[in-house]
Design goal:
Keywords: Cell cycle, Cell division, Cell inner membrane, Cell membrane, Membrane, Transmembrane, Transmembrane helix. Its main location: membrane. InterPro entries: Cell_div_FtsL. The protein has one domain (3-78). The chain has helices spanning 3-60, 63-74, 89-92. It has three helices and no strands.
Length: 94
């Protein structure tokens, strides 16, 4: 075989290997992009859930809601003025 033929075969093999490398790199880039898009979608879903949970917490923590739950579930009533005792600083000194 002549040197030119060997060189042509070697160059063709290198071009083929380079083409395979490009295909593999593009495939991996697509896979990473797909994973990135999935992560963004998951982030958006989690942000939406977080917002809904904050709204729910704000709803459950309102004074009127707590007062209603105390009255209806626990049977609590608001004490009258005669049942309220105020504790001032003087009572701590005893």
């Amino acid at each position: 075989m002549s040197r030119v033929l060997i060189l042509q075969i070697l160059l063709a093999a290198l071009v083929f290997a380079s083409a395979v490398g490009v295909v593999v790199a593009r495939h991996e880039a697509r896979q990473v992009f797909i994973e990135h898009q999935a992560a963004l979608s998951e982030r958006d879903a989690l942000n939406l859930e977080w917002t809904q949970l904050q709204l729910e917490q704000a709803t459950w923590a309102t004074q009127a809601r707590i007062e209603t739950a105390a009255r209806e579930r626990l049977g609590m009533i608001k004490p009258g003025p005669e049942h309220i005792v105020y504790v001032g600083e003087a009572s701590w000194e005893r």
